[in-house]
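Justification of resources, computational component.

The compute hours requested in this renewal are based largely on the per-chain cost of generating structure records like the one below. Each record pairs the submitted sequence with a full structure-token output. That output is archived, and it is also reused by downstream analysis tasks.
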Amino acid sequence: MAAGTRKPKTSPKSVKFLFGGLAGLSAGLLRQATYTTTRLGIYTILFEKLTSSDGTPPNFFMKAVIGMTAGAIGAFVGTPAEVALIRMTADGRLPPDQRRGYTNVFNALLRITREEGVPTLWRGCVPTMARAVVVNAAQLASYSQSKQFLLDSGYFRDNILCHFCASMISGLVTTAASMPVDIAKTRIQNMRMIDGKPEYRNGLDVLVKVIRYEGFFSLWKGFTPYYARLGPHTVLTFIFLEQMNKFYKQFFLSA
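The structure output for this chain reads:
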């Protein structure tokens, strides 16, 4: 190395950000393993149960009801991982003396149980389930309805292109429907006590305060990046789900 040339140093903040992201990854994976698999599994089972013997699928209203049911159950199962995920991703933004310092999702769940009690794992469960009801009623029902519409149009066949287009439509509908309840859920799960009182009373209180102090359309602030995240996620979710259902029917049900 030439004289006088300094070796670049890694910023402590960037190191903390990197390891904070990796710590939150375990919580994100556990959330997907609990919430997503539960809701998709229940939706698929109920959808097949309510499909008539001649192959006619349920109407849109029943699809929405099935989606609500699947979402509520999945959200209840996944709430502990959701609480850990919210806290771990927010930890780096807190002052050093207020950080919780969870090392991974299992450490977070154990410490929350030990320090705050088991019910804390389901803090914000009601707004989380409310969000899941809205999201899944919008996402699952709109996907099934969009797919059925595309197939009935005669321009699509039941293949990956059809699944892609239907899931992109579903992602757009889901983004518009879920952002307000997502804001309420996130703020409640991440709230702190102020002078011995919780920052918000419930999800409705969050929405009222956001509209009052930040404006009505702030409920959809960040719509484009939200859709940019949710759109590909929805596409991959339904394409993989359709392929797995196809292989399951081909190799197990037909055997």
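The chain has seven helices and two strands. The two ends are 67 Å apart (CA to CA).
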